[in-house]
């Protein structure tokens, strides 16, 4: 039996309850703490590591617990800032409304030039930055900003002024010509 098997057994049998108690300080919920400990143990022992004693392994698992909790909190905060883009939480919409909205968006996108459409999709759907869009399409950042400005104006005209979030990258400096 490899040494890490013995260490894993000791962590699971002797230190698991202490680890769950530690995780509960972060999650404030025992079930979430147990899930966090489980995930941290899996992440810790999924790769070969030089964990030869239970105390070193426990310290490593505690570090993974902290990291996973912080990463999860960041993902949740990021999700909260973007969830409004996916659904209107004010009221449930019918499938017919969703179909009509999809057709409206498709028609609005059809009114864009191919470059405007590509820039808008990469910027607003794939959430790429202007330099990333420029790299992806082989354009200058100034050209991307111009296409984005034009596409945003056309989309707002077709779909309404509040359909797209304010995007400072969609603004073109006055006097710039391509």
Automatic annotation (TrEMBL):
UniProt KW ATP-binding keyword: no
Coiled coil: none
Key words, A-Z: DNA-binding, Sigma factor, Transcription, Transcription regulation
Keyword Phosphoprotein: no
Family: Belongs to the sigma-70 factor family. ECF subfamily.
PANTHER family for the chain: RNA POLYMERASE ECF-TYPE SIGMA FACTO, RNA POLYMERASE SIGMA FACTOR HI_1459-RELATED
Protein name (database record): Sigma-70 family RNA polymerase sigma factor
The organism of origin for this protein: Cellulomonas fengjieae
């Amino acid at each position: 039996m490899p040494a890490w098997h013995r260490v894993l057994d000791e962590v699971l049998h002797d230190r698991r309850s202490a680890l769950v108690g530690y995780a509960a300080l972060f999650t404030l919920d025992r079930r979430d703490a147990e899930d966090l400990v489980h995930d941290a143990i899996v992440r810790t022992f999924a790769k070969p590591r030089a964990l030869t004693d239970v105390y070193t392994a426990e310290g490593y698992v505690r570090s993974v617990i902290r990291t996973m909790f912080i990463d999860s909190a960041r993902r949740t905060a990021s999700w909260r800032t973007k969830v409004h883009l996916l659904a209107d939480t004010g009221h449930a919409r019918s499938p017919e409304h969703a179909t009509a909205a999809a057709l409206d968006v498709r028609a609005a996108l059809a009114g864009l030039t191919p470059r405007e459409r590509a820039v808008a999709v990469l910027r607003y759907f794939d959430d790429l930055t202007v330099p990333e869009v420029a790299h992806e399409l082989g354009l200058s950042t100034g050209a991307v900003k111009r296409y984005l400005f034009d596409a945003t104006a056309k989309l707002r005209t077709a779909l309404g002024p509040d359909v797209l979030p304010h995007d400072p990258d969609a603004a073109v400096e006055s006097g710039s010509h391509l």
